[in-house]
Write a structure and sequence with these properties.
Blueprint: H1 2-28, H2 35-53, H3 61-74, H4 76-125, H5 131-159
Helix pairs in contact: 1-2, 1-3, 1-4, 2-4, 4-5
């Protein structure tokens, strides 16, 4: 029975070690470039960490001491802490990318609405005989500017 208990403990510790090393490796290499892919990676790591922390199969005090000793020897707690730190960095990167995307969207909307306001002011302040020309040029100019802004906005989003 003792050999079986030690084998079970060793297998579980080894499994924890492999899971932690795998995700440490995955988070240590180049991360995905999109928010969606980063979020999927974060969810996967969180699910694994949840499984890792839910492993509680040893009730006897002796087994608990063996598990603690095994974790110390295999440095599982250190790996776990390092993985949590990498996860914080991942969460920070996701938040930064969301903030950047949001700021760019606000910039785009501000520019588009500002152009409309400028056109409105030009139309209101112009003489009646020039109204048609001003409206025509304002509309075509704003469509061109908005198209350029949308193009640039999409290019910038694809970079991050």
């Amino acid at each position: 029975a003792l050999v079986l208990d030690l084998t079970t403990i060793f297998e579980n510790l080894l499994l924890q070690f492999i899971i932690l090393r795998t995700y440490d490796y995955v988070l240590g290499k180049e991360l995905p470039k999109t928010i969606e892919e980063l979020s999927k990676l974060k969810e996967s790591v969180l699910n694994s960490l949840t499984e890792f922390s839910n492993v509680r199969v040893w009730i006897p005090l002796t087994a608990t001491k063996w598990v603690d000793f095994g974790k110390k020897v295999m440095r599982i707690n250190e790996l776990y802490d390092a993985l949590k730190e990498r996860l914080k960095i991942l969460e920070s990167k996701i938040q930064d990318m969301y903030n950047l995307r949001y700021n760019r969207l606000i910039l785009f909307v501000t520019l588009a609405l500002g152009i409309v306001q400028i056109m409105e002011a030009l139309v209101i302040s112009s003489a009646p005989e020039e109204l048609f020309n001003i409206v025509f040029y304002a509309i075509t100019g704003s469509i061109t500017i908005i198209t350029v802004i949308v193009f640039l906005y999409e290019k910038i989003l694809k970079v991050t």
